[in-house]
Amino acid sequence: MLIKIETLVKSQKHLVLATCGQGLPHASLMAYCVAEATPRAGGEFWLATLRGTRKFANIMQNQRASLLLDDRSVAGEPSLALTVEAECHPFGSTVAGSTVDEAAARAALVARHPGLAGFLAQAEVAMLRFVPLRYQLLLGLTETFLWSPAESA
């Protein structure tokens, strides 16, 4: 199942970021890249947003969020949906023995999404570093697989 997760993460370029602030949920379609596509290696998700957005305010209030990826654009295969429960950490901080430079994350995001170069050059853009806590993979409508990096360490 970890290979299915890795394949899904590598094959998609957008996800839905779900945050919560002031008791209200909020969902945003976001471009992303990952530090490592293999969940076993940590698989941090890197995203960018403007500091004045609702999602940014929500994350500053509550660092925990959910990320949703799916393969609905792939025809003929059973549908996969991946929910990643994650926590936002500042770049430069050490998480699970790993420190990530914000400039490197920004460059990786531009490499995966060249159309974002102008957006990412803006001073008011904040880079977001989400570290996965738990993965839930749904295969079709009924088969579920749960995996936590912390439980596997």
| Average of pLDDT | 90
Overall geometry: globular
Helix content: 10-25%
Question: What count of structural domains?
Answer: 1
What portion of residues belong to β-strands? Answer: 35-45%
Descriptive overview:
The chain has 153 residues and is α+β, with helices and mostly antiparallel strands. It has a single domain, classed as Pnp Oxidase, Chain A (Roll), CATH 2.30.110. The chain is 24% helix and 42% strand. It has helices at 2-11, 54-61, 102-112, 117-120, 149-152, and strands spanning 14-21, 24-31, 33-34, 45-50, 64-70, 80-89, 94-95, 98-99, 125-139, 143-147. Strands 1, 2, 3, 4, 5, 6, 9 and 10 form an 8-stranded antiparallel sheet that branches. The mean pLDDT is 90.
Which short descriptors sum up this protein?
alpha+beta; two-stranded antiparallel sheet; eight-stranded antiparallel sheet; Pnp Oxidase, Chain A
Write the layout of secondary structure elements.
Blueprint (H helix, E strand, L loop, with lengths): L1 H10 L2 E8 L2 E8 L1 E2 L10 E6 L3 H8 L2 E7 L9 E10 L4 E2 L2 E2 L2 H11 L4 H4 L4 E15 L3 E5 L1 H4 L1
Antiparallel strand pairs: 1-2, 1-5, 3-4, 4-9, 5-6, 6-9, 7-8, 9-10
